[in-house]
């Protein structure tokens, strides 16, 4: 294995890991937004039953 192949493999590995970290961040922020939205809806006024 020459040096260029090793660099290419390491670059591909680093790129895939950075995409996974970004995906984890997006999922964390979206779950926090969902939890906040659910809490706000839960605190909202109740509808009157007829």
Characteristic key phrases:
50 residues; mainly alpha; membrane; transmembrane; transmembrane helix
Provide an overview of this structure:
- It is built from 1 helix and no strands.
- The chain has one domain.
- It has one helix spanning 3-43.
- It has 50 residues and is mainly alpha-helical.
Task: Describe what is shown at a glance.
This protein is an all-alpha fold. Helix content is 82%, strand content 0%.
Q: What's the number of structural domains?
A: 1
Beta-strand portion reads under 5%
Backbone structural class: mainly alpha
Poorly predicted ranges: none
Helices and strands in order, then pairings?
Blueprint: H1 3-43
């Amino acid at each position: 294995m020459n040096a260029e192949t090793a660099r290419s493999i390491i670059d591909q590995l680093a790129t895939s890991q950075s995409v996974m970290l970004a995906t984890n961040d997006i999922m964390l922020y979206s779950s926090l937004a969902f939890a906040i939205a659910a809490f706000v809806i839960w605190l909202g006024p109740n509808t009157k039953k007829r």
